[in-house]
């Protein structure tokens, strides 16, 4: 049996050398090029068992060639690598049928692990399955700022979640941007034309949580002078973001679990169930498994909500993103009518040295304050 061949396309000779050596160490053949047209010709001639391609090359764009590669060889897996490592690069690569996406600088061991798994025997019905359809992002890459390795992991996960309707749990410290990630997931997905509704469990009296979530009928309790639509009804067809889910009271947890299981709920004071179709995205800064052990959070609800967990990194783990985040905040402040301001190199160094216990929210508040109150 002949050895399988990996086609490598990148205009950076050092990357081609590193990848080809790693591929050969893994027992495969490697062929390199810096020309996307030559790569396409190889594929059309039936050469290669897997492709590793850069996005931007002088002789062609890897992403633009993806549909032609997939048309020529529908079952040929393509791994995309790119220094243009934004959320939308990951989304576009996934949309166009890439098997996997790795931002530069990539982890060579992780990439080669993907190569070895990909070239293992795979059932034809799986290998030839069409790529999932992902809707246009409409510029939403501007919402999530940062190209750090920690954020790249978030981007890769989001790119794969856009075309599926799975329940997502965002876990991260306060101020890390969990709601922004939830909104981005909504705005890029198939539910984008329907409502995005958010509710913070820690920001309301416990006795009102059920009414806020499920609504109530007129006369359901003292002060209920009219029927009120709950968040589930308001979010119908869209996304319901349950922030600080760890603060949900036990009685509301039970009702939420039944709603997720049965796809229906009964408003407070009502008797007739209402059908519901919403995507649930939850968030917490607390250790839910610890709450489960203490009996403060239902284990069955935890597993219903934690289908796809995403760890949102704190800002202290994204130090290389601080400069771009700061510039983004100043530009946002200017759009809101505050004076234009610029940061010196010393100022950026000072920002990068701070630990940011309040995370991105603390950084944004500081930059808005500087823009508003300081003349220079």
Q: Care to describe what's here?
A:
With 376 residues, this protein is of the alpha/beta class. Helix content is 41%, strand content 15%. The protein has helices at residues 13-25, 36-44, 62-72, 87-95, 108-118, 124-127, 149-161, 178-188, 209-214, 231-234, 250-262, 288-294, 299-305, 322-335, 345-353, 359-373; strands at residues 5-9, 29-33, 50-54, 56-57, 60-61, 78-82, 100-103, 168-171, 196-200, 239-243, 264-265, 274-275, 279-284, 308-311. The chain starts with a strand and ends with a helix. The relative contact order is 0.09. Residues 121-142 have low confidence and may be disordered.
List keywords for this structure.
376 residues, alpha/beta, 41% helix, 14 strands
Short description:
By secondary structure, the chain is an alpha/beta fold. It has helices spanning 13-25, 36-44, 62-72, 87-95, 108-118, 124-127, 149-161, 178-188, 209-214, 231-234, 250-262, 288-294, 299-305, 322-335, 345-353, 359-373, and strands spanning 5-9, 29-33, 50-54, 56-57, 60-61, 78-82, 100-103, 168-171, 196-200, 239-243, 264-265, 274-275, 279-284, 308-311. The protein has a 5-stranded parallel sheet, with helices on both faces. A 5-stranded parallel sheet has the order 9-10-13-8-14.
């Amino acid at each position: 049996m002949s050895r399988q061949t990996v086609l490598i396309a990148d205009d950076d000779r050092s990357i081609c050398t590193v990848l080809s050596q790693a591929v050969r160490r893994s027992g495969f053949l490697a062929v390199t090029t810096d020309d996307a047209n030559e790569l396409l010709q190889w594929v059309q001639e039936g050469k290669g068992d897997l492709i590793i391609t850069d996005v931007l090359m002088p002789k062609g764009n890897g992403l633009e060639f993806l549909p032609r590669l997939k048309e020529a060889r529908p079952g040929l897996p393509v791994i995309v690598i790119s220094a243009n490592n934004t959320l939308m690069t990951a989304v576009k690569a996934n949309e166009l049928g890439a098997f996997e996406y790795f931002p530069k600088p990539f982890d060579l061991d992780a990439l080669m692990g993907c190569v070895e798994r990909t070239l293992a025997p795979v059932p034809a019905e799986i290998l030839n399955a069409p790529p999932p359809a992902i809707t246009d992002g409409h510029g939403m890459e501007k919402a999530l700022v940062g190209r750090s390795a920690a954020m790249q992991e978030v981007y890769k996960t989001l790119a794969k979640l856009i075309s599926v309707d799975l329940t997502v749990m965002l876990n991260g410290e306060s101020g890390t941007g969990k709601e922004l990630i939830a909104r981005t997931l909504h705005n890029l997905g198939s539910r984008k034309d329907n409502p995005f509704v958010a509710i913070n469990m820690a920001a309301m009296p416990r006795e009102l949580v059920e009414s806020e979530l499920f609504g109530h009928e007129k006369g359901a309790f003292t002060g209920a002078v009219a029927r009120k639509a709950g968040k589930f009804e308001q979010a119908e067809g869209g996304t319901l973001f349950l922030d600080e889910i760890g603060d949900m009271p036990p009685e509301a947890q039970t009702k939420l679990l039944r709603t997720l299981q049965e796809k229906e709920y009964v408003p407070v004071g009502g008797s007739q169930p209402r059908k519901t179709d919403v995507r649930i995205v939850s968030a917490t800064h607390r250790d839910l498994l610890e709450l489960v052990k203490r009996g403060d959070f239902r284990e069955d609800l935890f597993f219903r909500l934690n289908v796809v967990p995403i760890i949102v990194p704190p800002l202290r783990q994204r130090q290389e993103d601080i400069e771009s985040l700061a510039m983004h905040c100043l530009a946002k402040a200017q759009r809101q009518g505050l004076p234009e301001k610029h940061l010196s190199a010393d100022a950026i160094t000072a920002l990068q040295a701070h630990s940011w216990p309040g995370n991105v929210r603390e950084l944004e508040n500081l930059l808005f304050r500087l823009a508003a109150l300081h003349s220079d």
